[in-house]
Amino acid sequence: MKELSSLDQMIEALRRLPGVGPKSATRMAYHLLQHDREGAQFLGNAMLNALQQIRHCGSCNTFTENAVCDTCADASRDTSILCVVESPSDQLMIEQTMTYKGLYFVLMGRLSPLDGIGPQDIYLDKLIRRATDGVVEEIVLATNFNNEGEATAHYIGETLKAKGLKVSRLARGVPVGGELEYVDPGTIARAILDRKST
Amino acid sequence: MKELSSLDQMIEALRRLPGVGPKSATRMAYHLLQHDREGAQFLGNAMLNALQQIRHCGSCNTFTENAVCDTCADASRDTSILCVVESPSDQLMIEQTMTYKGLYFVLMGRLSPLDGIGPQDIYLDKLIRRATDGVVEEIVLATNFNNEGEATAHYIGETLKAKGLKVSRLARGVPVGGELEYVDPGTIARAILDRKST
Ligand SMILES: [Zn+2]
Ligand SMILES: [Zn+2]
């Protein structure tokens, strides 16, 4: 079998990116070679550098270049409350609300038995060690509200409640600014069941 | 201003890829770091290696690792006819029809005055030198059948006819507005057979 050319290897490598098929990978490779060789250099260096530099935060499990990430190292955060999210992006969304001052644990995924993603893949042991450090009092489960996120929240919640921790879940309901006409019936049903007295 | 972290640099680098926005770039970076570090390594190495190895064919202008590409070096091709295409993908589509035995010239783009892409950006001087080598008798213009491709074909056609060359254009079996990369080989084959002198 003929060895792959440098160009073929470049296209194969780009196909490893999620959501990139053979046509896109080919288009990307041609674009970089023809119009943005500097970008290709930047991409190559950034990949190799990131692999060397980036590890998981020893405390919250997010990506960081240090033993502990900036958020975990921030002495002004409330250490008694731990918010469990699926990804760094979800953590960022919560940070942007400016309403949460506790710490985080980033699962880097969600339980998905059909895809072979079990408790060890979402760092459950690390989460248990973190949550039972004697300082954390409450866990806020902020996984997504789809099937897998709900199942993940349920599994983690039961596990941590068995360790004597207080566990809560983000409230569900009609989005702020949401018009009932455009909200799905499942959300409205949940909002009715979870109604709060005013 | 704070220096970009390795992760931010990785995301910035992925955004240089055509069609990749901030959300996709972030998702790609997390995926590679979390689930495919080997893929990230492959991508990094493939980029840097490609930049070192890949140059333009001295004859047809396509990407190659040698002074002259495999197609141009193939002694069985008909050297009297030269097919002008916009990209290596378009050349590949024509090759797949198995109906064309001549050689190619790859413009690596098309004229687009609004984007500042002029004759020098599509290697017109190199094409003229190639086409006037005394061996080439006919030029088949196989640029795309959209506005820019047609304008490019017209411009090149007039230039080469002024040099005394016979110039033809793929027949309009290709749908108007269609891009070669997305047309079935049968249609392209018919268009080659029906090519018309211009
Ligand atoms: Zn951390
Ligand atoms: Zn060539």
Q: Which small-molecule species are bound to the chains here?
A: zinc ion
- Find the structural class of chain A using helix and strand composition: alpha/beta
Overall residue-averaged pLDDT value of chain A: 91
Question: How many DSSP-defined strands of chain A?
Answer: 6
Question: Which spans of chain A of ≥5 residues are poorly predicted at pLDDT below 50?
Answer: none
Largest sheet of chain A: 4 strands, parallel
Round the Cα radius of gyration of chain A to an integer and report it: 21 Å
By oligomeric state, this entry counts as: homodimer
* Greatest interface: A-B, 48 and 48 residues
Instruction: Estimate percent helicity of chain A.
Output: 40-55%
Strands ordered across the widest β-sheet of chain A:
4-3-5-6
| Percent in strands of chain A | 5-15%
Query: What is the overall silhouette of chain A?
Result: globular
End-to-end separation of chain A in angstroms reads: 73 Å
Order of helices and strands of chain A: HHHEEHEHEHEHEH
**Helical stretch tally of chain A:** 8
